[in-house]
């Protein structure tokens, strides 16, 4: 086929307007060549139907060590700003039989039965965080991201993998840096070293004193043919569970709460029972995917799309910010948050062989957390206009630096609305 000469779009590393950038990319084509930090080129896939195809195409892999020539041949620096996303050796980056083997091992921790067994832990953590906010004086501004949206999923996943609170707090700073696309090469190198060191320490502790947790289970795990996780696969898989299970859910809470507070009519629908929390979850994931651009996949061979050919070995980004709002699927009001819309189809949990194993846990913590929050604080309100909420400095994640709210409607004399 004839291939147009692609124009490269330089991704905004500050993430200051993810949806505007996603709209621009979507109008430029199904696949658009983009420039990542460090001058690395990749393809952003912006069309819902094409993303579904890419996510199930056996010619697309997530393994840099097997299918990215620039990485294999040393042209990607060890301090590249996004090195942690490609240097991992786990089920997220595995290919073929290795992916099946690792996914089978990890999947044992996320069966429906084990997911439901986590409910009491989620409820305990949720009510503990809400209790800590109960004493907030009327009218005082609270950062709900810091006090609720961030710690709830982070504490939950840490408990599931058997990580201490002290270690969780230290590792959380590393994860925050990993998703920040404004980091320097020096910071990127430190991030890779720090998270691997933290996981090696956790594995050593659990090997010495096993517990009732995912890490201990994986250490002891064997799959059907008697093989086990290598040490690198073990450490990197635990980190993937920690990062994916916390960071995405943190931003989900941030976005869901923001949308409900700015659409009070829809909040009333769910509180009255005329809509469900599942409606809220799916519509939030569609219109405000916690993941904006997910790095990286690679073309195992040339892949022909409708308007371009992605050459063998080229890296690929899935543009979740664009596909959730694709007007070809959701119509001209695709940008609108509407929990009553009939079709809330989204791909925020992925699709195909890499579909999120923890989706059931994520839905459970979202339902428990949101319902308890709005039951405890029915007069919850934003403390600033939405346009003053500052985005995270990243094109990978979609969330805010802070979520300032007032928990009650009672504002003492002399306290302004801002």
UniProtKB/TrEMBL annotation:
Instruction: Please tell me whether the keyword Iron is annotated for this protein.
Output: yes
| Pfam families from the UniProt entry | p450 (PF00067)
- Keywords of the record: Heme, Iron, Metal-binding, Monooxygenase, Oxidoreductase
**One example GO MF annotation:** monooxygenase activity
Judging by the UniProt lineage, the source's domain of life is: Bacteria
InterPro entries the record matches: Cyt_P450, Cyt_P450_B, Cyt_P450_CS, Cyt_P450_sf
PROSITE patterns assigned to the protein according to its UniProt record, in alphabetical order = CYTOCHROME_P450
Family named by the database record: Belongs to the cytochrome P450 family.
Q: What protein name applies here?
A: Cytochrome P450
């Amino acid at each position: 086929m004839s291939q147009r000469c692609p124009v490269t779009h330089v991704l905004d590393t500050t993430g200051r307007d993810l949806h505007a950038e996603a709209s621009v990319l979507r109008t430029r084509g199904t696949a658009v060549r983009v420039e990542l930090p460090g001058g690395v080129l990749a393809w952003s896939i912006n069309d819902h139907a094409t993303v579904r195809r890419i996510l199930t195409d056996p010619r697309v892999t997530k393994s840099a060590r097997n299918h990215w020539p620039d990485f294999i041949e040393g042209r990607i620096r060890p301090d590249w700003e996004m090195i942690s996303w490609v240097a991992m050796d786990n089920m997220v980056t595995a290919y073929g039989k290795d992916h099946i083997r690792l996914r089978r091992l990890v999947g044992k921790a996320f069966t429906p039965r084990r997911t439901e067994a986590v409910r009491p832990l989620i409820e305990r953590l949720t009510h503990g965080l809400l209790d800590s906010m109960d004493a907030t004086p009327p009218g005082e501004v609270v950062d709900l991201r810091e006090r609720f949206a961030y710690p709830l999923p982070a504490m939950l996943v840490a408990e599931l993998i058997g990580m201490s609170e002290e270690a969780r707090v230290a590792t959380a700073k590393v994860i925050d840096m990993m998703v920040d696309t404004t980091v320097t090469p020096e910071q990127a190198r430190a991030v890779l070293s720090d998270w691997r060191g933290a996981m090696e320490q956790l594995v050593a502790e659990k090997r010495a004193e096993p517990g009732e947790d995912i890490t201990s289970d994986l250490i002891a795990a064997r799959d059907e043919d008697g093989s086990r996780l290598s040490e690198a696969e073990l450490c990197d898989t635990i980190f993937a569970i920690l990062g994916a299970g916390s960071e995405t859910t943190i931003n989900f809470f941030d976005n869901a709460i923001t949308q409900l507070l700015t659409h009070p009519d829809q909040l009333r629908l769910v509180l009255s029972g005329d809509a469900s929390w599942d409606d809220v979850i799916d519509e939030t994931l569609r219109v405000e995917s916690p993941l904006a651009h997910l790095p990286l996949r690679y073309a195992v061979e040339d892949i022909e799309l409708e308007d371009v050919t992605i050459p063998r070995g080229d890296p690929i980004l899935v543009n979740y910010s664009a596909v959730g709002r694709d007007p070809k699927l959701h119509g001209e009001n695709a940008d609108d948050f509407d929990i009553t819309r009939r079709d809330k189809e989204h791909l925020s949990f992925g699709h195909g062989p890499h579909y999120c194993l923890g989706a059931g846990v994520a839905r459970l913590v979202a339902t428990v957390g949101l319902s308890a929050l709005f039951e405890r604080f029915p007069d919850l309100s934003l403390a600033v206009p939405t346009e003053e909420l500052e985005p995270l400095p990243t094109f990978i994640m979609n969330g805010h630096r802070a979520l300032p709210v007032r928990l009650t409607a009672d504002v003492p004399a002399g306290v302004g609305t801002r």
